[in-house]
Design goal:
The protein has 363 residues and is mainly alpha-helical. It folds into 2 domains: 24-274, Fido-like domain (Fic-like fold); 283-361, Arc Repressor Mutant, subunit A (Orthogonal Bundle). 63% of the residues lie in helices and 5% in strands. It is built from 15 helices and 5 strands. The strands form 2 sheets. The protein has a 3-stranded antiparallel β-sheet. Strands 1-2 form a two-stranded antiparallel ribbon. Strand 4 and strand 5 (348-352) form a beta hairpin. Helix 11 packs antiparallel against helix 15. It starts with 23 loop residues before the first helix and ends with a helix.
Length: 363
Amino acid sequence: MGYNKNTPFNDLPALPPQDFTESPEILRHLAKAARYLGELNGLCASLPDPQLLINTIVLQESKDSSAIENIVTTQDELYKAASEEGTASHGAKEVLSYREALYVGLEKMTGQKNLLLTNTMVEIVQTIKQNKSGIRTAPGTALKNAINGEVIYTPPCCEDVLREKLASLEQFINDPDSSPLDPLVKMAFIHYQFEAIHPFADGNGRTGRIVNALYLVQQDLLTQPVLYLSSYIVKYKTEYYQLLRGVTEQHNWHDWVMYILTALIETAQLTTKKIRAMLLLKEDYEKQMKQTLGSSFSYELLQLMFALPYLKIELLEKRAIAHRQTASVWLKKLTDANILKPQKIGRTTYYVNYRLMELLAEN
Protein backbone atom coordinates (compact mmCIF):
# COMPACT_ATOMS: atom_id res chain seq x y z
CA MET A 1 0.00 0.00 0.00
CA GLY A 2 1.33 3.47 -0.89
CA TYR A 3 2.06 6.26 1.56
CA ASN A 4 -0.98 8.35 2.59
CA LYS A 5 -0.32 11.50 4.61
CA ASN A 6 -3.75 11.23 6.27
CA THR A 7 -3.25 7.79 7.83
CA PRO A 8 -0.65 6.72 10.43
CA PHE A 9 2.63 5.80 8.73
CA ASN A 10 2.89 2.39 10.41
CA ASP A 11 4.69 1.08 7.30
CA LEU A 12 7.64 3.42 7.96
CA PRO A 13 10.57 1.23 6.79
CA ALA A 14 13.39 0.34 9.17
CA LEU A 15 16.91 1.65 8.57
CA PRO A 16 19.08 1.51 6.57
CA PRO A 17 17.15 2.56 3.44
CA GLN A 18 17.36 -0.06 0.71
CA ASP A 19 17.52 2.43 -2.18
CA PHE A 20 20.35 4.69 -1.02
CA THR A 21 23.73 4.99 -2.72
CA GLU A 22 26.54 7.40 -1.89
CA SER A 23 27.00 9.71 -4.87
CA PRO A 24 30.38 11.34 -5.64
CA GLU A 25 28.84 14.62 -4.37
CA ILE A 26 27.94 13.03 -1.03
CA LEU A 27 31.42 11.51 -0.71
CA ARG A 28 33.04 14.92 -1.30
CA HIS A 29 30.81 16.52 1.34
CA LEU A 30 31.49 13.63 3.70
CA ALA A 31 35.25 14.20 3.48
CA LYS A 32 34.81 17.93 4.17
CA ALA A 33 32.45 17.33 7.10
CA ALA A 34 34.86 14.81 8.66
CA ARG A 35 37.76 17.27 8.26
CA TYR A 36 35.99 20.22 9.88
CA LEU A 37 34.55 18.10 12.69
CA GLY A 38 38.06 16.77 13.34
CA GLU A 39 39.37 20.34 13.55
CA LEU A 40 36.62 21.30 16.00
CA ASN A 41 37.21 18.18 18.09
CA GLY A 42 40.94 18.84 18.24
CA LEU A 43 40.30 22.40 19.41
CA CYS A 44 37.89 21.24 22.14
CA ALA A 45 40.36 18.59 23.29
CA SER A 46 43.10 21.23 23.65
CA LEU A 47 41.07 23.62 25.82
CA PRO A 48 42.49 24.07 29.34
CA ASP A 49 38.98 24.52 30.76
CA PRO A 50 36.60 23.01 28.17
CA GLN A 51 33.40 23.22 30.22
CA LEU A 52 33.70 26.99 30.45
CA LEU A 53 33.39 27.73 26.73
CA ILE A 54 31.41 24.61 25.88
CA ASN A 55 28.63 25.60 28.29
CA THR A 56 28.29 28.94 26.53
CA ILE A 57 28.25 27.38 23.05
CA VAL A 58 25.73 24.75 24.16
CA LEU A 59 23.45 27.52 25.43
CA GLN A 60 23.53 29.09 21.94
CA GLU A 61 22.66 25.71 20.40
CA SER A 62 19.80 25.40 22.91
CA LYS A 63 18.51 28.85 21.93
CA ASP A 64 18.49 28.08 18.19
CA SER A 65 17.09 24.57 18.57
CA SER A 66 14.20 26.03 20.59
CA ALA A 67 13.71 28.80 18.02
CA ILE A 68 13.05 26.16 15.34
CA GLU A 69 9.98 25.24 17.41
CA ASN A 70 9.01 28.95 17.68
CA ILE A 71 10.19 29.16 21.30
CA VAL A 72 11.91 32.53 21.23
CA THR A 73 14.02 34.29 23.82
CA THR A 74 16.50 37.16 23.54
CA GLN A 75 20.18 36.83 24.37
CA ASP A 76 19.64 39.22 27.29
CA GLU A 77 16.74 37.20 28.75
CA LEU A 78 18.64 33.96 28.32
CA TYR A 79 21.89 34.99 29.96
CA LYS A 80 20.13 36.79 32.80
CA ALA A 81 18.22 33.55 33.42
CA ALA A 82 21.47 31.56 33.24
CA SER A 83 22.86 33.84 35.95
CA GLU A 84 20.33 32.21 38.30
CA GLU A 85 17.77 34.98 38.15
CA GLY A 86 14.48 33.61 39.51
CA THR A 87 12.11 35.48 37.19
CA ALA A 88 13.03 33.95 33.83
CA SER A 89 10.67 34.26 30.87
CA HIS A 90 8.89 31.12 29.63
CA GLY A 91 11.13 31.04 26.54
CA ALA A 92 14.33 31.34 28.58
CA LYS A 93 13.20 28.54 30.91
CA GLU A 94 12.54 26.25 27.92
CA VAL A 95 16.00 27.00 26.48
CA LEU A 96 17.70 26.31 29.81
CA SER A 97 15.72 23.05 30.05
CA TYR A 98 17.08 22.08 26.61
CA ARG A 99 20.66 22.59 27.80
CA GLU A 100 19.93 20.57 30.93
CA ALA A 101 18.39 17.81 28.76
CA LEU A 102 21.53 17.64 26.61
CA TYR A 103 23.69 17.03 29.68
CA VAL A 104 21.15 14.56 31.15
CA GLY A 105 21.29 12.61 27.88
CA LEU A 106 25.09 12.65 27.84
CA GLU A 107 25.31 11.41 31.42
CA LYS A 108 22.71 8.70 30.81
CA MET A 109 24.44 7.51 27.62
CA THR A 110 27.83 7.42 29.36
CA GLY A 111 26.35 5.41 32.24
CA GLN A 112 24.81 2.88 29.83
CA LYS A 113 28.05 1.69 28.23
CA ASN A 114 27.82 4.43 25.62
CA LEU A 115 24.48 3.13 24.31
CA LEU A 116 21.86 5.60 23.10
CA LEU A 117 18.58 3.97 24.12
CA THR A 118 14.85 4.71 24.08
CA ASN A 119 14.81 5.35 27.83
CA THR A 120 17.51 8.00 27.31
CA MET A 121 15.30 9.71 24.72
CA VAL A 122 12.38 9.62 27.17
CA GLU A 123 14.51 11.23 29.91
CA ILE A 124 15.63 13.89 27.44
CA VAL A 125 12.07 14.87 26.48
CA GLN A 126 10.97 14.81 30.12
CA THR A 127 13.80 17.21 30.99
CA ILE A 128 12.96 19.49 28.07
CA LYS A 129 9.27 19.59 28.98
CA GLN A 130 9.85 19.45 32.75
CA ASN A 131 7.14 16.79 33.11
CA LYS A 132 6.71 13.00 33.11
CA SER A 133 5.62 12.65 29.48
CA GLY A 134 6.54 9.40 27.74
CA ILE A 135 5.85 7.52 24.51
CA ARG A 136 2.59 8.62 22.85
CA THR A 137 -0.31 6.34 23.77
CA ALA A 138 -3.36 8.12 22.29
CA PRO A 139 -4.30 7.93 18.59
CA GLY A 140 -5.06 11.01 16.52
CA THR A 141 -1.63 12.68 16.27
CA ALA A 142 -1.11 14.49 12.97
CA LEU A 143 1.27 17.27 11.90
CA LYS A 144 -0.69 20.09 10.30
CA ASN A 145 -0.02 23.30 8.39
CA ALA A 146 -0.33 26.07 10.98
CA ILE A 147 -2.03 28.41 8.50
CA ASN A 148 -4.69 26.29 6.80
CA GLY A 149 -4.88 23.22 9.07
CA GLU A 150 -4.05 20.81 6.22
CA VAL A 151 -2.50 17.52 7.35
CA ILE A 152 1.16 17.36 6.32
CA TYR A 153 2.11 14.06 7.90
CA THR A 154 0.54 11.45 10.19
CA PRO A 155 3.20 9.59 12.22
CA PRO A 156 2.90 5.95 13.28
CA CYS A 157 0.37 4.97 15.96
CA CYS A 158 0.19 3.74 18.73
CA GLU A 159 2.49 2.85 21.66
CA ASP A 160 3.28 -0.77 20.69
CA VAL A 161 4.12 0.27 17.10
CA LEU A 162 6.18 3.25 18.31
CA ARG A 163 8.19 1.11 20.73
CA GLU A 164 8.84 -1.46 17.99
CA LYS A 165 10.11 1.26 15.65
CA LEU A 166 12.23 2.85 18.39
CA ALA A 167 13.75 -0.57 19.22
CA SER A 168 14.71 -0.96 15.57
CA LEU A 169 16.19 2.56 15.55
CA GLU A 170 18.12 1.74 18.76
CA GLN A 171 19.73 -1.23 17.04
CA PHE A 172 20.71 0.88 14.03
CA ILE A 173 22.26 3.54 16.32
CA ASN A 174 24.17 1.20 18.61
CA ASP A 175 25.13 -1.77 16.44
CA PRO A 176 28.14 -0.92 14.23
CA ASP A 177 27.35 -3.95 12.04
CA SER A 178 23.85 -2.64 11.19
CA SER A 179 25.29 -0.67 8.26
CA PRO A 180 28.73 -0.17 6.71
CA LEU A 181 27.93 3.49 5.93
CA ASP A 182 29.87 6.40 7.42
CA PRO A 183 28.53 7.57 10.83
CA LEU A 184 27.75 11.03 9.42
CA VAL A 185 25.48 9.55 6.76
CA LYS A 186 23.97 7.33 9.45
CA MET A 187 23.32 10.44 11.55
CA ALA A 188 21.23 11.91 8.72
CA PHE A 189 19.23 8.65 8.58
CA ILE A 190 18.79 8.56 12.36
CA HIS A 191 17.56 12.14 12.49
CA TYR A 192 14.98 11.54 9.76
CA GLN A 193 13.83 8.28 11.35
CA PHE A 194 13.35 9.78 14.80
CA GLU A 195 11.37 12.70 13.39
CA ALA A 196 9.25 10.30 11.28
CA ILE A 197 8.50 8.05 14.29
CA HIS A 198 7.55 11.20 16.25
CA PRO A 199 7.34 9.23 19.50
CA PHE A 200 6.29 12.03 21.84
CA ALA A 201 3.28 14.33 22.04
CA ASP A 202 5.64 17.34 22.10
CA GLY A 203 9.39 18.05 22.08
CA ASN A 204 10.29 15.66 19.24
CA GLY A 205 12.30 18.20 17.23
CA ARG A 206 14.44 19.26 20.16
CA THR A 207 14.92 15.67 21.36
CA GLY A 208 15.96 14.64 17.85
CA ARG A 209 18.55 17.40 17.67
CA ILE A 210 19.97 16.37 21.05
CA VAL A 211 20.20 12.79 19.74
CA ASN A 212 22.31 14.19 16.84
CA ALA A 213 24.79 15.71 19.28
CA LEU A 214 24.94 12.60 21.46
CA TYR A 215 25.47 10.36 18.44
CA LEU A 216 28.52 12.40 17.38
CA VAL A 217 29.94 11.93 20.89
CA GLN A 218 29.07 8.23 20.88
CA GLN A 219 30.92 7.78 17.58
CA ASP A 220 34.03 9.57 18.97
CA LEU A 221 33.65 12.35 16.40
CA LEU A 222 33.33 14.95 19.18
CA THR A 223 34.46 14.68 22.80
CA GLN A 224 31.72 17.10 23.88
CA PRO A 225 28.23 17.79 22.41
CA VAL A 226 29.39 21.21 21.29
CA LEU A 227 28.29 21.48 17.65
CA TYR A 228 26.17 24.57 16.94
CA LEU A 229 24.04 22.60 14.41
CA SER A 230 20.67 24.28 14.95
CA SER A 231 21.98 27.62 13.69
CA TYR A 232 21.99 26.13 10.17
CA ILE A 233 18.50 24.65 10.52
CA VAL A 234 17.12 27.99 11.77
CA LYS A 235 18.61 29.68 8.71
CA TYR A 236 17.24 27.07 6.29
CA LYS A 237 14.14 25.98 8.19
CA THR A 238 11.83 25.77 5.15
CA GLU A 239 14.26 23.48 3.30
CA TYR A 240 14.64 21.35 6.46
CA TYR A 241 10.92 20.52 6.54
CA GLN A 242 10.65 20.19 2.76
CA LEU A 243 13.50 17.68 2.66
CA LEU A 244 12.06 15.63 5.53
CA ARG A 245 8.84 15.39 3.51
CA GLY A 246 10.87 14.57 0.40
CA VAL A 247 12.25 11.44 2.09
CA THR A 248 8.79 10.36 3.27
CA GLU A 249 6.96 11.02 0.02
CA GLN A 250 9.61 10.42 -2.67
CA HIS A 251 12.43 8.47 -0.90
CA ASN A 252 14.73 11.39 -1.72
CA TRP A 253 17.53 10.44 0.64
CA HIS A 254 20.24 12.09 -1.47
CA ASP A 255 19.10 15.69 -0.93
CA TRP A 256 18.38 15.09 2.77
CA VAL A 257 21.85 13.62 3.38
CA MET A 258 23.42 16.52 1.45
CA TYR A 259 21.51 19.00 3.63
CA ILE A 260 22.73 17.38 6.88
CA LEU A 261 26.34 17.13 5.63
CA THR A 262 26.26 20.79 4.54
CA ALA A 263 24.88 21.70 7.98
CA LEU A 264 27.74 19.77 9.62
CA ILE A 265 30.36 21.49 7.44
CA GLU A 266 29.05 25.02 8.02
CA THR A 267 28.35 24.65 11.73
CA ALA A 268 31.63 22.90 12.51
CA GLN A 269 33.41 25.87 10.90
CA LEU A 270 31.18 28.36 12.73
CA THR A 271 31.64 26.66 16.10
CA THR A 272 35.42 26.48 15.64
CA LYS A 273 35.51 30.16 14.69
CA LYS A 274 33.43 31.15 17.73
CA ILE A 275 35.53 29.12 20.18
CA ARG A 276 38.78 30.56 18.77
CA ALA A 277 37.37 34.10 19.03
CA MET A 278 36.27 33.43 22.62
CA LEU A 279 39.76 32.18 23.50
CA LEU A 280 41.36 35.31 22.02
CA LEU A 281 38.90 37.53 23.88
CA LYS A 282 39.58 35.70 27.15
CA GLU A 283 43.33 36.11 26.63
CA ASP A 284 42.87 39.82 25.95
CA TYR A 285 40.65 40.25 29.02
CA GLU A 286 43.16 38.46 31.23
CA LYS A 287 45.84 41.02 30.31
CA GLN A 288 43.48 43.96 30.78
CA MET A 289 42.13 42.65 34.09
CA LYS A 290 45.64 42.11 35.49
CA GLN A 291 46.39 45.76 34.69
CA THR A 292 43.06 46.99 36.10
CA LEU A 293 42.86 44.87 39.26
CA GLY A 294 46.57 44.46 39.94
CA SER A 295 47.42 41.99 42.70
CA SER A 296 43.70 41.36 43.38
CA PHE A 297 43.20 39.85 39.90
CA SER A 298 40.93 36.80 40.16
CA TYR A 299 41.12 34.03 37.58
CA GLU A 300 37.81 32.68 38.95
CA LEU A 301 36.16 36.02 38.07
CA LEU A 302 37.56 35.84 34.52
CA GLN A 303 36.18 32.30 34.20
CA LEU A 304 32.76 33.40 35.44
CA MET A 305 32.61 36.26 32.94
CA PHE A 306 32.73 33.69 30.12
CA ALA A 307 30.45 31.11 31.73
CA LEU A 308 27.82 33.72 32.71
CA PRO A 309 28.19 36.96 30.75
CA TYR A 310 25.63 38.75 32.99
CA LEU A 311 27.32 39.23 36.38
CA LYS A 312 25.99 40.79 39.55
CA ILE A 313 27.49 41.33 42.99
CA GLU A 314 25.33 38.61 44.57
CA LEU A 315 26.56 36.06 42.03
CA LEU A 316 30.21 36.65 42.99
CA GLU A 317 29.21 36.24 46.64
CA LYS A 318 27.23 33.08 45.96
CA ARG A 319 30.13 31.52 44.02
CA ALA A 320 32.49 32.43 46.92
CA ILE A 321 34.67 34.43 44.54
CA ALA A 322 34.55 37.62 46.62
CA HIS A 323 32.77 39.25 49.56
CA ARG A 324 30.20 41.89 48.71
CA GLN A 325 32.44 44.94 49.11
CA THR A 326 35.33 43.41 47.13
CA ALA A 327 32.93 42.27 44.39
CA SER A 328 31.51 45.79 44.16
CA VAL A 329 34.99 47.33 43.84
CA TRP A 330 36.07 44.82 41.19
CA LEU A 331 32.97 45.27 39.04
CA LYS A 332 33.23 49.06 39.23
CA LYS A 333 36.90 48.97 38.18
CA LEU A 334 36.10 46.65 35.26
CA THR A 335 33.27 48.99 34.22
CA ASP A 336 35.58 52.03 34.35
CA ALA A 337 38.08 50.12 32.19
CA ASN A 338 35.29 49.41 29.64
CA ILE A 339 35.69 45.64 30.11
CA LEU A 340 32.14 45.28 31.42
CA LYS A 341 29.07 47.43 30.82
CA PRO A 342 26.52 48.06 33.59
CA GLN A 343 22.85 47.43 32.85
CA LYS A 344 20.23 48.27 35.48
CA ILE A 345 17.09 46.12 35.41
CA GLY A 346 14.66 46.88 38.21
CA ARG A 347 16.70 47.12 41.38
CA THR A 348 19.50 44.91 40.10
CA THR A 349 22.59 46.12 38.27
CA TYR A 350 24.10 43.55 35.91
CA TYR A 351 27.66 43.88 34.64
CA VAL A 352 27.67 42.57 31.09
CA ASN A 353 30.55 40.97 29.20
CA TYR A 354 29.27 42.84 26.14
CA ARG A 355 32.08 41.87 23.79
CA LEU A 356 31.34 38.19 24.42
CA MET A 357 27.63 38.83 23.81
CA GLU A 358 28.44 40.55 20.49
CA LEU A 359 30.66 37.63 19.50
CA LEU A 360 27.96 35.06 20.33
CA ALA A 361 25.39 36.97 18.25
CA GLU A 362 27.57 36.84 15.10
CA ASN A 363 26.77 34.30 12.37
